[in-house]
């Protein structure tokens, strides 16, 4: 029994990790219809800055704060420099720019931080666990799970249940009408990128602390799983994204336990994506706006 | 043309010829960029030390040794491109490959077809030396590493083991050797698991191993995935002994794992305290050059320069076929990695297998296993 409970908890924790890594992307896509693949680069950037600052100052709090602030600025700059001028272009233009940006970012990390990546000089968290009914739960995983659930449900409520959130969504489908109602469309866009990048940085630093390693290609696996989560979750739907993340995590956890002789973890994730979309093309939730 | 200008031209032409033949060019194929750059940096450092030392003692056959470095990024396609370029130029006397199995294996047949000496310092896939008689291996075959690991674990008194391997050529070859030997010496295998190179989260694997409760876990991976795996195994509550393959025996692995690596045994790699004065002297210089992160890869690279230099001195020539025969005939040559007893008929190295243990954040040499 403990074994299956272990798999369940592991699957949920993995799902929360994916949720945290993709919530920013879901927010940006939901509000701006931009498939910001370079979000994985911001995830890595946040991790690199967080670990570097922590090593420099011996303070994880400073590392976290620095990672969040600098990633928010980076996200807003990305929007301003790369996306703002191509908003009226077909969607594939933004996708291509984003892919190129991600490649450039990964190579830049390689040059600046080194090929092997970086580790925390002093990491008191990654080996710390809490015993819950015989299951060892890593404290960082627990924190990540808690933040993911709070963030996603909070954002879902904000975007769907508040006047401000609805006004933000209106900037996607009817920007002129939204402006005439006093909604600052430009501000909404910058905020979406800023908040999305902040969430990526939080996820990046926490995963880096959990693994005690961040490499230049840290975000590459996250990037395509985040895309899968957006699609499975219903294109911009926050609750859908959380549900999709948890399903993906559980599928990988149980799938690897029983089928790892035949398929690896990423193949199992891809299979889940295909099966769900064939049964339900719109994913788990309805898209926003 | 006047007589003066004729002689001037003749002198220029002769000196050009002399300078062209004054250098012996040795190539180094290694990953300077990409996830395996730890190895590349150390291999480069080792090669530079070897060339500097050989040149400081007068070079070889009165000629200076020159190093040409090629970055394969552990990509098979890149290694093939390098091999095609190098074998068509025909400037190199030999190519030393300090890289992973995939790019080394990809390039081996090209060097064999071109009848150019190809010395695989670090790659372990069995098919590499099967390319032909111009291809030699300076590190142990993956399978023989696995065999020695099985023998070591049996010697320690373990009865039941779980195997975890990275899903690539290297992992497959090591584990094949381990399983074959385990069957012969009655070492039980409780379970076997594989993961992909990009995996960093191992929750399911940890749960599986805790359920299996083996006496020991053997891990065949690299520092960037084996490190998180070891940390997660310890954090997940597995307290049993761990034994790892050579590619996890480096400083980066210790940095990633921290206290989680305490007590882990690594088979067939050399620690800075490897009991050979020449190795320690070499390691001191490697450290001075900031290239000490992968000492085993570095020492294997350096040893091939020793072997090549010895072969060139014995033949008095850089002719590829004579060099090939001289390398194959090498016997009881002292190298920084211990005595090289020779090469097998299949051009595999015959040398000891050192065992390390992680103690207080460092690797320490504990014993050597003879082939």
Commentary on this structure:
The complex is a heterodimer of chains A (289) and B (371). Chain A is mainly alpha-helical. Chain A has a single domain (2-279), classed as Orthogonal Bundle (ABC transporter involved in vitamin B12 uptake, BtuC), CATH 1.10.3470. Chain A contains 11 helices and 2 strands. In chain A, strands 1-2 form a two-stranded antiparallel ribbon. In chain A, helix 5 crosses helix 6 and helix 9 (220-233) packs parallel to helix 11. The longest helix of chain A has 31 residues, at 2-32. Chain B folds into 2 domains: 3-140 and 275-351, Response regulator (Rossmann fold, 3-Layer(aba) Sandwich), CATH 3.40.50.2300; 143-267, 3-Layer(aba) Sandwich (Rossmann fold). In chain B, a hairpin with a 2-residue loop joins strand 15 (353-359) and strand 16 (362-369). Chain B is 45% helix and 22% strand. Chain B has helices at 3-21, 37-56, 76-89, 101-113, 142-155, 169-184, 203-212, 223-235, 251-257, 277-288, 295-315, 320-328, and strands at 23-30, 64-71, 92-97, 117-120, 135-137, 160-166, 188-195, 216-220, 242-244, 265-267, 333-335, 338-340, 342-343, 349-350, 353-359, 362-369. With 371 residues, chain B is α/β, with parallel strands linked by helices. Chain A binds chain B through residues 3, 6-7, 10-11, 13-14, 17, 110, 114-117, 119, 123, 126-129, 136, 138, 211-213, 215, 217, 220-221, 252-254, 256-257, 260, 264-266, and chain B through 33-38, 40-41, 167, 193-196, 198-201, 203-208, 210-211, 223-224, 227-228, 231-232, 234-237, 252, 255-260, 293.
User: What is the count of structural domains of chain B?
Assistant: 2
Number of strands of chain A: 2
Describe the global form of chain A. Answer: globular
* CATH architecture type of the largest domain in chain B: 3-Layer(aba) Sandwich
Strand percentage of chain A, roughly? under 5%
The ordered H/E elements of chain B are: HEHEHEHEEHEHEHEHEHEHHHEEEEEE
Overall 3D shape of chain B: elongated
Count of discrete alpha- or pi-helical segments spanning 4 or more residues of chain B = 12
What is the domain tally of chain A?
1
> Using CB atoms under 8 Å apart, which protein chain pair has the greatest interface?
A-B, 37 and 43 residues
User: What's the total count of β strands of chain B?
Assistant: 16
CATH class placement of chain A: Mainly Alpha
Average pLDDT level of chain A = 86
Report Rg of chain A: 19 Å
| Main sheet: strands, sense, barrel of chain A | 2 strands, antiparallel
| Rg measurement of chain B, Å | 22 Å
**Straight-line N-to-C gap of chain B:** 69 Å
Number of DSSP helical runs of chain A:
11
Uncertain parts of chain A: none
The name CATH uses for the topology of the largest domain in chain B is Rossmann fold
Helix-strand sequence of chain A: HHHHEEHHHHHHH
